[in-house]
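Training component of the fellowship. As part of building independent skills, the fellow (R.M.) carried out the full modelling exercise for a liganded target. The chosen ligand was adenosine-5'-diphosphate. The inputs are recorded below so that the supervisory panel can assess the work.
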Amino acid sequence: MKTIDDLDVSGKRVFVRADLNVPLNGTTITDDGRIRAVAPTITALLERGARVVVASHLGRPKGAPDPHFSLAPVAVRLGELLGKPVAFAADTVGDSAKATVAALGDGEVTLLENLRFNAGETSKDDAERGAFADQLAELAELYVGDGFGAVHRKHASVYDLPARLPHAAGLLIEKELGVLKRLTEDVRRPYAVVLGGSKVSDKVGVIDNLLGKADRILIGGGMMFTFLKALGHEVGASLLQEDQIPVALEYLERAKASGVEFIIPVDTAVAGGFPDLKTGAPVEDFEVVDVDAIPAGKLGLDIGPKTAALFAEKLADAKTVFWNGPMGVFEHPQFADGTRAVAQALLTASTPPGDAFTVVGGGDSAAAVRTLGFDENKFGHISTGGGASLEYLEGKTLPGIAALEA
Ligand code: ADP
Ligand code: MG
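Fellow's submitted model of the complex:
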């Protein structure tokens, strides 16, 4: 795989596929980690006299412009981080993009509007994606792939565009791949994996592969209820993926057979409804219950304190830890304790004499660590890609990496 050092970028238009999919509250960026993560690549290209055209997706618009998902606030923040103005194009391949790119001088940078405002970006139809990639290719002479959080997507800007331009991997992708190698080759043991979050079916697959690699698998977040239900507990109105119950049971069996410790929560923080994340208003019917006593109609929204202590104990002597997915709805103060406890446990394991290699992966997980006030530099690595990291650990081919290797 080529790196940016292998490209002669001076005076050239360089398309940088970044992942600037940051969490927003209205037009306020609540965590700028993904913008900071790609800034070194952009700066390196600008210093070498490139004309940099940055592109990204944001959220899940439906293939047409939608002001809720505009990258305009990101352009402002990117400019602050780079210390130079970022010209913002009001479209991706239209008149505004063409004019903005044409006006770029050496060492100048523009950000295009959301790639997913164009149906071709995510299309399952190769021809439709290809046609959009052709339009993107007209904007640049070189391609740098640095959107690690999107490399598991077979999208036009990730997969089809690099086939059309001389290409290289950016600094972020190089770094992320280095970390993932450390999690798959010569792993220091015990190796513990903590899984949580809300995208249950996305994440169940990784367990299959981890059963042969990890020593301990800890389950929290929305996924825990599928396992609890599989074990015969009632889970009230909690997030549940009924169709995954047989798979959950199979994993529990295989874990037992292969000596992998599978750790399921023993208590949970529940409420009568989903909390208001915008206002953070306290939930009145909050309570912590054991997992065999989840009241009908109530939702489990975090692991409980007994589980947090159990998880901390299971992480204390680990030498390698990979964590993806918050333990609860950490965006609300009443349901952030489990996530905070796991973050603290990783930090404790990282610090000598623990000296573990700790990796946090996932957009929300990384945002959680930072918004809960932890110093990100104290972790081994905070990855910008959850799905991408998981698919790599599952042993899948990542389309965006394959395209850069070709
Ligand atoms: P990541 O981005 O780190 O891969 P996900 O996107 O899978 O993580 O999940 C993050 C989301 O999961 C958070 O917004 C959080 O509120 C939510 N979540 C965690 N636990 C629960 C739960 N028990 N019920 C519903 N949502 C949950
Ligand atoms: Mg997420």
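The panel noted the following from the submitted structure. The pocket of magnesium ion (ligand 2) is lined by residues 362-364, 386 (CB under 6 Å). The CA atoms of residues 93 and 138 lie 9 Å apart.
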